[in-house]
Amino acid sequence: MTGAPTAIYLDHQATTPVDPRVLDAMLPWFSETFGNAHSEQHVWGRQAADAVEVARAKVAALIGVEAREIVFTSGATESNNLAIKGALRFALHHGRGDHIVSVVTEHKCVLESCAAVTEDGARITYLEVGSDGLVDPEAIAAAIEDDTVLVSVMAVNNEIGVVQPLAAIGALCRERGVLLHTDAAQAAGKVEIDVNAMQIDLLSISGHKMYAPKGIGALYTRRRPRARLQAEISGGGQERGYRSGTLPVPLTVALGEAAEIAGDELAQEGERLTLLRTRMLDRLRAGQPDLFVNGSLDQRVPGNLNVGFPGVDAETLMESLDTIAVSTGSACTSASVEPSYVLRALGLSDADAGASIRIGFGRFTTESEVDTAADLIVAAVRSQRSDRSVRAAE
Ligand SMILES: *Cc1c(COP(=O)(O)O)cnc(C)c1O
After folding, report:
1. Buried/exposed 229-242: b ≥16 CB within 10 Å, e otherwise
2. What is the pLDDT, as a whole number, of residue 330?
3. What is the rounded distance in angstroms from the CA atom of residue 195 to the CA atom of residue 144?
């Protein structure tokens, strides 16, 4: 058996633990009530189908939409692939346009889905962001062409936590008759999202970023006006034909439960996480006054902090800090030594990007963990700097 590591976990943008309430809700669906939700001719199937529909309604309620507009997927990667490839391929096949507008700081799965449809003939405009990480809605308006099918802008960035101005973007997309897709993997259950007020047409959700298990997610697909997509996975026509395959009932139940809890606790959890973030930042700054914050601090999801310490090498810092789990750049790019493309897009030098760490607070993070982690980080930065000055003096 592998026991829990004793480190302090501050990497909630990479993944979150499953909330015990979510685990309790999902467990019976593995064994006692194991039916196939698509076998509605008997009670096992009907029970499973009912559970899936309850879960679907809970996911829908979190973002203010109808249950039948929710398609269950394996996660936000699949949802983003389906939204982007699906919308473009439908449009390309029906002669309804060929152009996408997106942003350079999007998650890799969005950027790669866009790149994939260029092989089908799509064209893409990638917009830059300001030094605060935010995209200017005016720039989106200017980038939309007659043949633009889709604008894809993430709700909350996974590295720097900044919240994009979706309501303004949604209004101008609707006015121009262009679909708006948003990758809300880091936003759902963390910041208020009202899909109708924001005029979003397609929205991606990831279970494991909101205290449900890995391997489940959802895509919201608007019915009126209808967002038309070509399916990626062919088969039995489940999920209204958008996503064939037998639904993983326990995982859908888990996502529903996680969505309900997140919605109920959003405001109070947001307040608590903001206090923890402020506490961390104040303590880091007291110890290392020259630190810099990456991305807007006020247009930001409560659980994220991304800071740099000039002259420090964050990779080395992390190696010396084996009792706390934070991240340098996003988990998806940390296999390579490339500086984060998100931080580079803010205008940071390679050195400053390489001096930055992402600290992600979550539902079970405590004040004392924050204090301990802050003190360890300050000490590690101090020790790396004094090593350097000793070496420089030699
Ligand atoms: C985690 C993440 C994804 C990928 O989600 P999975 O459910 O792991 O596939 C996509 N976009 C963003 C912004 C993310 O943070």
Report:
1. bbbeeeeeebbeeb
2. 45
3. 21
pLDDT digit string, tens, across residues 249-278 = 999 999 999 999 999 999 999 999 999 999
State in Å: Cα 204 to ligand 1 middle. Answer: 9
Which is the catalytic residue, given 109, 114, 173, 332? Answer: 332
Q: What is the DSSP string of 131-151?
A: TTSPPPHHHHHHH--TTEEEE
- Gyration radius of the chain's alpha carbons: 22
Query: So what's the pLDDT on residue 65?
Result: 98
Q: If you write DSSP's letter for every residue of 288-345 in order, what string do you get?
A: -TT-EE-S-SSSB-TTEEEEE-TT--HHHHHHH-TTEE-BSS-TTTTTS-PPPHHHHH
Q: Is 76 in the pocket of ligand 1 (CB under 6 A)?
A: yes
Outline where 161-248 has alpha helix (H).
166-176, 195-198
Structure confidence at residue 3 (pLDDT): 67
206: Cβ below 6 Å to ligand 1? yes
| Backbone CA torsion sign across 219, 221, 227, 228 | positive
pLDDT tens for residues 122-156?
A: 999 999 999 999 999 999 999 999 999 999 999 99
Q: Is it the case that residue 179 has pLDDT exceeding 50?
A: yes
Residue 173, CA distances (Å) to 4, 142, 144, 149, 358 in order = 46, 11, 8, 10, 32
